[in-house]
Specification:
Length: 343
């Protein structure tokens, strides 16, 4: 109803004033159950490049599990092979070097990937050309990425994926770095690759949660000891600190083998997802899986695992191999006491 105000012996009609709508009064979008699937190391170079990708069989590495991968609302993987022009020279890093051709980006998109990490010890295998070409090709196919950038600020920036009423931020970083092991910041790559430093990561997680820019935060780190069957204490403390800062899911890769899952404050940590598209000699490096996280509308998280075999093509694992995979990963549900004691 309008109100009447008497002023200077005249009746004046005052307009009705409605309160401004605050952003906090806008109801959040309806959230549905969300499926986030994650896999380990993806090496689309070498044999995968020459025998399949460059011969037109773009989907070969993922064909056997394509339906499973496409069932995810968000599919994540660690891109271990930077993308570079065919024939581009490698850098001398003192370690094996990998790169993949531009068509590798198309392979990832066809397989259903929604976001990848570029931060790992092979990020500099094709030098700065490879860092920038990887970004260019992933952008060309519309595939979000995190962990490297044209600037350090871009490398630190998370990829944010929106699905089913959720905003999910993916941070990607590395502690393994072949060109300068143990002295990352002395190398030029430190200007373009995100290092796993708590000084910037933990505050970034807190800011993105406090600002409500993201509802969920996933932290991906390339670190640990190759072929070790359990995580080291530094990695455990790093991921536990990330969860204390507000991370919801932590994903590890680099050891090339599976390691146990741990739950911390009701949030899962997969210390090593092992290989996925990666052929190595040791038989246990071929034990892999698709880690399947289901987030309920109330934010609770459940974890399941589809056992798989890694190689030039990822395939379903059954029988004794599947049993071995599940034993290595351990219980997938939180327990009253963790399977790993605190350091």
């Amino acid at each position: 109803m309008p109100s009447w105000i008497l002023a200077s012996s005249h009746f004046l009609l005052a307009t009705v004033q409605y309160p401004a709508v605050s952003p906090l009064m806008v109801p959040p979008p309806m959230r549905e159950p969300l499926r986030i699937y994650a896999v380990g190391d993806l090496n689309l170079g070498r044999t995968v490049t020459w025998d399949y990708l460059l011969k037109g069989d773009t989907l070969y590495p993922f064909r056997a599990l394509r339906d499973t991968l496409h069932a995810a609302d968000i599919l994540f993987g660690n891109l271990e092979s930077p993308i570079a022009p065919v024939g581009h020279p490698y850098q001398r890093t003192g370690s094996p070097v990998f790169s993949a051709p531009p068509v590798a980006a198309d392979a990832l998109a066809l397989a259903g990937f929604d976001v990848v990490s570029n931060a790992n010890n092979h990020a500099w295998d094709a030098g700065l050309v490879g860092v920038f070409e990887t970004l260019r090709q992933l952008d060309r196919v519309g595939l979000p990425h995190a962990g490297t950038g044209r600037t350090l600020a871009e490398a630190h920036r998370p990829a944010i994926i929106e699905r089913k009423g959720w905003r999910v931020a993916f941070f990607a970083l590395t502690r393994a770095y072949n060109p300068a092991p143990g002295r990352f910041y002395t190398h030029i790559g430190s200007r373009y690759i995100a290092y796993a430093d708590t000084a910037w990561l933990y505050p970034a997680i807190r800011r993105i949660k406090a600002s409500r820019e993201a509802d969920l935060v996933v932290v991906s780190m390339h670190a640990g000891t190759e072929l070790a069957v359990t995580p080291d204490d530094r990695m455990r403390l790093f991921f536990q600190g990330a969860i204390a800062a507000g991370a919801d899911i932590c994903l590890g890769h680099h050891p090339h083998v599976l390691q146990p899952v741990e739950w911390y404050r009701g949030r899962p940590i997969v210390y090593s997802m092992g290989n996925f598209i990666f052929q190595q000699r040791a038989p246990w490096t071929g034990l892999s899986g698709v880690f399947q996280f289901t987030i309920a509308p109330n934010g609770s998280i459940a974890l399941d695992l589809l056992p798989a075999r890694s190689g030039f093509q990822a395939t379903l694992a059954t029988g004794a191999a599947a049993d071995s995979i599940r034993r290595r990963v351990g219980p997938l549900a939180p327990a009253s006491s963790s399977t790993l004691s605190a350091p």
